[in-house]
Amino acid sequence: MRLARACVIYTAALATLLSFRSATALAGEKEKLHWVRFDEGMVQAQRSNKKILIDVYTTWCVWCKRMDQNTYSDDSLAAYLGRHYVLVKLNAESQSELSYKGQRVSEMQLAREFGVNGYPTTVFLKANGDPITSFPGYADAVQFGNVVRFIAEDIYLSKKFDEYLKSSRN
Questions:
Q1: Taking every pair of C-alpha atoms in the chain, what is the biggest distance, in angstroms?
Q2: pTM above 0.85, yes or no
Q3: Under a CB-based contact definition with an 8 Å cutoff, are residues 154 and 140 in contact?
């Protein structure tokens, strides 16, 4: 009897909490991005069959911080990214080890392997970890939205980016 009563109380409390969260979200709560470490991102991508977006940054990079504050904080973009990508942060100066394609490498080595030589750089991978492309530099939410859609929706397989931009404006 006590167990049944506890289950009822727990269920009611959970329902109240979930309805509060929904109301808070409707009242303008910011969309939150869920960034993960590289190894976890690879596992999630393979399970979900989502592409991987890697934000390659450094701790001192002003434009990396602006990208976080101005671009990734855009609610519409954040919602799209959450639906279509596994999101990974990679510190290009870190010696922390990770696993990529059966090799143990540091975050710094992996950034170099992806050809990163400026920050921020966004690297896009297929769900299996194969590279698609990279996007160097800062972009505002509108510009970056075009890039992530171009990759997420596989438009890159049939069009060049400038063709996509021209066709999306018409």
A1: 67
A2: no
A3: no
